[in-house]
Amino acid sequence: MALIVQKYGGTSVKDLDRIRAVADRIAASHRAGDQVVVVVSARGGVTNRLIADAKALHPEPDDRELDVLLSIGEQETIALATIALHALGVPAVSRTGGQAGIFTDSVHTKARITEIRGGDVREQLEAGKVVIVAGFQGVDGHGFTTTLGRGGSDLSAIALAAALKADLCQIYTDVDGVYTADPRIVPDAKKIPEIIYEEMLELASLGSKVMQSRAVEFANKYNVPFEVRSSFNNNPGTIVKAETSTLEDVLVRGVACDKNQTKVVVSDIPDQPGAAAKVFRSLAEAKVNVDMIVQNVGRQGIANLTFTVPADDAYRADRAVNECLAKLGAGSVSRTDRIAKVSIVGVGMQSHSGVASLMFSTLAEHGINIQMISTSEIKISVAISLDQADDAVRVLHSAFELNK
Amino acid sequence: MALIVQKYGGTSVKDLDRIRAVADRIAASHRAGDQVVVVVSARGGVTNRLIADAKALHPEPDDRELDVLLSIGEQETIALATIALHALGVPAVSRTGGQAGIFTDSVHTKARITEIRGGDVREQLEAGKVVIVAGFQGVDGHGFTTTLGRGGSDLSAIALAAALKADLCQIYTDVDGVYTADPRIVPDAKKIPEIIYEEMLELASLGSKVMQSRAVEFANKYNVPFEVRSSFNNNPGTIVKAETSTLEDVLVRGVACDKNQTKVVVSDIPDQPGAAAKVFRSLAEAKVNVDMIVQNVGRQGIANLTFTVPADDAYRADRAVNECLAKLGAGSVSRTDRIAKVSIVGVGMQSHSGVASLMFSTLAEHGINIQMISTSEIKISVAISLDQADDAVRVLHSAFELNK
User: Fold this and answer.
1) What 8-state DSSP symbol labels residue B212?
2) Which residues contact A249 (CB under 8 A, 6 or more apart)?
3) I want to staple A129 with a disulfide (CB 3.0 to 4.6 A). Which of A81, A91, A265, B18 is the partner?
4) Cβ atoms B36, B29 nearer than 8 A
5) Is residue B64 less than 8 Å (CB to CB) from chain A?
């Protein structure tokens, strides 16, 4: 008898038919003799509708009240899923995040988990019940409901799996698992059977939409192996864990692509201590997430700064830099939209040379111009023109033999 | 500075525009210097949609899970109303029923209030904030959310007003107050400026849709005066309290009509101890609400029983009685649909004779046949044909000079 934590996302519980299908799946695990804890998200679209209502009333709704509002999405799903299980004759009970003992700080809308006590979840499991827990939410020291931010339900599931010392944690979503590249771009992309946390983290932050990086970080920190799989079929998914058996053999695990980037070039700023820092401080104050950064020092102590930002932040970035330059009394800004960031990720590249060289020469052979490069121990990213992004993903996927 | 409890029903908070209008009204009270506690219902239609979803998954959804589900309706409204107040620059904070210290027993979907501690509502008021409380819900000894049944938000408001020793309790709804008769039937019906609890209770249980009787009972028990008024205009409403200044002058306060009745006649049952009891026990087991009852003993120890039930219960009543008669081995059942119950209500009739006589002669003069009669100290009800119901209301309204 295993203790399994299953998490179902918004697409998987979108309507009553999907909730029935999820109940069937949970019932199968329960009947196989396992103890099952289920974490559910709000029904697809509900959270966005609630946010839109709040913003229609106030451009910047109070975070505490937003949490009171947003937490109802998951509360609806736990009740409906529990009722659907009862219809199948499966004993089940729902718990809010707070009732499942998920304690957080009081930073509403992006609370951090401080402790997981598990509430009476273990008792309910011992009594033979499936326990359906509201994801995305917790409770703070005042007893007020908090939410964990985007992707918070994945975090709830992994944190509960850690607290309950679950044997297995399954993240059910609308994709089959993690692929070597986006199958819509690369038709012969392959599902990756096993991947380590660090690679998953890089893929998550590089544009792969499977999971938010926060949940993966938590899994890494507390060493919670989990499986990403589809709630629409019974295919095995991708196991994410600390080590994989194929670790030594694989140079590159996958190719990721983020098509939502804008490049900003700040030219002719004085090459003096603190000038670049001032630019980035004003970007931080404007809450712009800066991604890749390159700094060149040109002739006569004049520097150029180049960086990418998410396309949504482009206007704010532009304004923030212009205000900063006005204070510095020097420099100019130019923006290039339609930029893509293409990355290769693999823990194997730590111990192999020639990976960067193969990446750059492959792109060059196909006439793809590299505008910026950034690297970490286990990934190399390049900024290129958006028009060439799909081509780049395909030729890199092929060059690193990911279809084999 | 007064402490006011205001309650807004589902129609009053149906959409974002209506929530904005309610916020304007609350803001006006706050700016006038009053301390304001607001109890809100779920947005109109939300509770029914949630119940329909639950029943689509299970014909008899678990009551505890139903409460988890239904309570989100009010939780949505408290957050949205609070955010709307912020947009007007009014400091405000939301509280769930449990957070406002509304404690109940654990009888889910029809919990009874056991204690109201008020949570930190007083502190928030002292800090200058409007407190928006979720109606219809409380929390039981396990910390689980309960709901109070239909009309529960009225009860929440009156109970909070009692616990906080409020100076005023205003029940905002979609009608201007309590009328001497339904203005759609009697165009010259008059709004009643003041009415006593007992009369309001009778009107509530006799088909007037303004308020559920439970909240009025609570107000009566704890002597909480309240005002029923419209959230769509600024007209004064109806004050409901223990005594009215006009008590001695008014014989009949109003005419009520319930058009949703079926008459059931059980003929030829043995007139022996327990036969009628058996009939009514089977009706109770079938959860049929029996209303007016008449029993005649005929010749040779054979009795007839006549009673009315809500039309929705007619089929179940018929089946229950038939099963019971099969066991008794005697009797037969016949049903008359399209029955109305028309009632006159007034505490003044306790001390005046001739009220019943005037009622019956008025109906007779207009050719309206009385099929059944039932009376209490402050009301007389008659069952008549549905076709004559509106006529009956009009001629009684006029005979008792309620338009004056």
Assistant:
1) -
2) A348
3) A91
4) yes
5) yes
A238 touching chain B per CB within 8 A: no
What angle do the packed helices B213-222 and B197-205 form, to 10 degrees? 170
Q: Write out residues 302-331 of B within 8 Å (CB-CB) of A.
A: none
Which of A49, A83, A123 to substitute to test the interface with B, most B CBs within 10 Å?
A83
Contact B339, B317 (CB under 8 A): no
- Bigger pLDDT: B294 vs B300: B294
Say which range, A162-166, B32-36, B291-295, B322-326, has the weakest mean pLDDT: B291-295
Architecture of domain B255-399 in this structure: 2-Layer Sandwich (3.30)
B207 pLDDT above the threshold of 90: no
CA B220, B221, B225, B227 torsion-angle sign: negative
Local confidence band at A207 (pLDDT 50, 70, 90 cut-offs): low
State the pLDDT at residue B381: 93
- As to burial, measured by CB atoms within 10 angstroms (0-12 exposed, 13-18 middle, 19+ buried), residue B67 is buried
Residue A173 CB neighbour total at 10 angstroms: 24
Alpha carbon distance B371, A327 (integer Å): 91
Class level of CATH domain A3-174: alpha beta
Sign of CA dihedral B14, B19, B20, B21: positive
SS3 B370: coil
Interface list for A 10-29 with B (CB within 8 A): 16, 19-20
A39 vs A117, which has greater pLDDT?
Answer: A39
| Nearest Cβ partner for A82 among B20, B65, B84 | B65
Mean of all residue pLDDT scores within chain B: 91
- Per-residue pLDDT at A2: 94
- Do the chains contact at A54 and B83, CB–CB below 8 Å? yes
Residue with tokens 């040109």: A298
In A125-253, the DSSP E strands lie at 130-134, 137-139, 145-147, 168-173, 194-196, 226-230, 238-241
Cα–Cα distance measured from residue A286 to residue A264, given in angstroms and rounded to the nearest whole number: 15
Mean pLDDT of B98-119: 93
pLDDT at A298 over 80: no
Determine contact, residues B214/B149, Cβ cutoff 8 Å: yes
ipTM: 0.84
Chain A environment of B64 (Cβ under 8 Å): 93
Phi and psi of A85, rounded to 5°? -70, -40
Q: Where are the beta strands (DSSP E) in B222-315?
A: 226-230, 238-241, 254-270, 293-297, 302-310
Q: Cβ neighbours of residue A318 under 8 Å, at least 6 residues apart?
A: A264, A333, A335
Beta strand segments in A293-399, E: 293-297, 302-310, 332-345, 372-376, 379-385
Tell which B residues from 147 to 166 touch A, by Cβ distance under 8 Å.
none
Q: Is A130 exposed, middle or buried (0-12, 13-18, 19+ CB in 10 A)?
A: buried
Q: For residue B54, which residues of chain A lie inside 8 Å, CB to CB?
A: 79-80, 83
Q: Give the pair of three-digit tokens for residue A72.
A: 């109802």
Q: How many residues does chain A have?
A: 404
Task: Say yes or no: A66 contacts chain B, CB-CB below 8 A.
Answer: yes
Does residue B297 carry a pLDDT above 80?
no
- Contact yes or no for B76 and A58 at CB 8 A: no
Q: How far is CA A237 from CA A227, A231, A253, A315, B102, in A?
A: 6, 10, 15, 39, 47
What number is the average pLDDT over the span B284-296? Answer: 86
Backbone angles phi, psi at B305, to 5 degrees: -120, 130
C-beta separation of A134 from A77 below 8 A? yes
